[in-house]
Amino acid sequence: MCEFCNMQCDSRRHPSNHRRFCKNNPDREKTKEKREKADDQGGYCSICDIPYKKRSAYH
Fold first, then answer.
1. pTM exceeds cut of 0.70
2. In sequence order, which ranges of 1-59 are alpha helices (DSSP H)?
3. CA distance linking residue 59 with residue 55, whole number of Å
């Protein structure tokens, strides 16, 4: 159950995903900015010729 809008969630993962983007969450904008910043360019693999995001598991 979401603590901001009391929405019933059907799985264990759903509440955390919903809480992050819930319209009634007062920290939603701050969280959005933080997540966008984490998606910035992180590293570059010269062997694969692939740029990776900061939050990538491969970096």
1. no
2. 14-21, 28-38
3. 8
